[in-house]
Amino acid sequence: MMKLLFKKFKTKIKNERGFSLLELLLYIGIFSMLLVTFFQLLTAIFDVQLESSGVSSVDQDGLFIMNRLSYDIKHVQSITTPASAGQTAASLVFTEDGDTYNLSVSSGNLVLADVTRGTSDRLNSVNTTVSAPSFTLLSDTQGQGYRTITFVFTVNSLDTQRNTSKVKTFKTTVGVN
Fold first, then answer.
1. pLDDT tens by residue, 108-155
2. In what order do the strands lie in the sheet with 119-122?
3. What pTM, to 2 d.p., does this model score?
4. Rounded Cα gap, residues 139 and 43, in angstroms
5. Rounded Cα–Cα distance for residues 109 and 131 (Å)
6. Which of 92, 80, 126, 93 is nearest to 107 (CA)?
7. Domain locations in the chain?
8. Which stretches of 75-85 are DSSP H helices?
9. Is the CB of residue 137 less than 8 Å from the CB of residue 147?
């Protein structure tokens, strides 16, 4: 009886020895491949998020600046720079409600400066820079006293990680009384 019990115990110990070296290497290899695949997927997700963020910043800032300039230009009393029809300038100087404003780029920021009061506002966000502004005063072709201004500017995103920087040029024409 003792022999039978010892034999069962001996076979039980043989069957519960653990993993072989080959099995451990196989598991480590499969786990490593899964880990590499997971990190590649995670990196791709972050790249898409950064690209989306850059595009969104450029579009939002560009549309905000276009709407703001369109509103301001429609309400001006006079335009000082550019001075004459057909002239193009890198800044726009105008008078609205008795205050003189200067719209220009300074250190990559589009700045609307109230020259009369000595204050200024940056029109783009911290995620973008603005470059190459161009304001062209067009002449009155109908003889009705109307003028139009065409403005062009470029917005660049500051997301330079992983080469996701985005650039977009905006252009529009606004009528002025």
1. 999 999 999 999 999 999 889 999 999 998 865 555 556 788 999 999
2. 78-81, 92-96, 99-106, 109-114, 119-122
3. 0.70
4. 53
5. 8
6. 126
7. 23-176
8. none
9. yes
For the stretch 71-92, what's the b/e string if a residue is b when 16 or more beta carbons lie within 10 angstroms of its beta carbon?
Answer: ebbeebeebebbeeeeeebebb
Q: What is the DSSP letter of 162?
A: G
- Reference 68, options 24, 130, 10, 145; nearest CA is 130
Type of residue found at 164: T
CA distance 51 to 159: 8
Q: Binning pLDDT at 50, 70 and 90, where does residue 56 land? A: confident
Residue type, 110: L
Mean pLDDT value across residues 87-114: 93
Residue 48: CA count within 13 A, CB half-sphere: 6
